[in-house]
Specification:
Elements: E1 32-36, E2 39-42, H1 43-53, H2 62-88, H3 95-106, H4 111-120, H5 125-145, H6 154-163, E3 169-170, E4 173-181, H7 200-215, H8 220-227, E5 239-244, H9 245-251, H10 253-261, E6 272-274, E7 277-287, E8 290-291, H11 297-326, E9 329-331, H12 332-340
Antiparallel strand pairs: 1-2, 1-9, 3-8, 4-5, 4-7, 6-7
Helix pairs in contact: 1-2, 2-5, 3-5, 6-11, 9-10
Amino acid sequence: MSRLKGIGVWLAFLGLAAGCGSGSNSTASAAVAARVNGKDITMADLERKFRVRASGDTPVSEEEAQDLKLQILSEMIADEILLSLAAKQDLSVTDAELEARFIAFRGQYSDEAFKTLLAQQNTTTEEMKSDIRRALILEKLINKEVTSHIKVSDQEVLDFYNRYKSRFDLPEGFHIAHILVTNFPDSEVRNAKGDDARTPDEARDKAVRLLKQVQGSADFAAVARDYSEDPTSATQGGDLGFQSLDSLNNIDPRLGQIAQKMKPGEIWPKAVETRFGFHIIKLLERDPGGQKELSDPRVQARIHQELFNGKDRALKAALADAARNKAQVTNYLAERILSTAGVELPN
């Protein structure tokens, strides 16, 4: 079963499992999956999101499909509860904001790849825009109710460092950027040009061509954004961040050997072939490792981000739980599944 692709359900991370039968006990037709504060979540919408989530090559059993639908419905209920809260606060998204976010998302795909994505997810551009609008509203709600309230003090950073100082005794690090060219067709290429080498010969020719460009006057990061077939790093200009020797060796031992021979700013003179394809490697920085002090800006940034993320997760979970406590929710799909199995809930 593949992971959820594209826009998907915005607040799945909340883990808010909406129960059945909370609030109204009114009945609903088989076309309704759940009702949240008087608004219906339809089975058609649930089935659409299910097809997205279950669009991998491995077929799912009836039991797995049922379990997955309940998970997705729980996420949809969580979204709808928070959208109700956003509506009470008059939070909305302008057409210009929607279009800007859609263009940014659409720009990750070539025309052919975007059509393939729509077909794979059995959705339309308008349905995708609707999902994006909801995501943007929820983003505004989270920013207003959670993010804007998070503060990390200097004392908290110092306390964290003193408590976990050993975490900052680091191995030698290599700040690597790469341009990856794979030798197989990939409908999820994320580079700006939508460029995809589809055969080993095409991949080899493309790698040679791009290597010549970056060895000349072309900017490495710009070429990576335009042509790299690594879906994770292409949009970041090929930046892989600092990697230890062990992590490079886990990708391919040749990468570790090459990194040790390079100087900062150097581009390796040949494309390196691994099981992933052809890599064009640039060493941006090299760090000797050892114990890092709190005065190091990278240490401060890492601690600040970790503390921020912890507070962010806690506040989001609290917001979700508090909103859920005040919501009127009936999960009709769960009730129907229990009824079919002959299970009756006590009154």
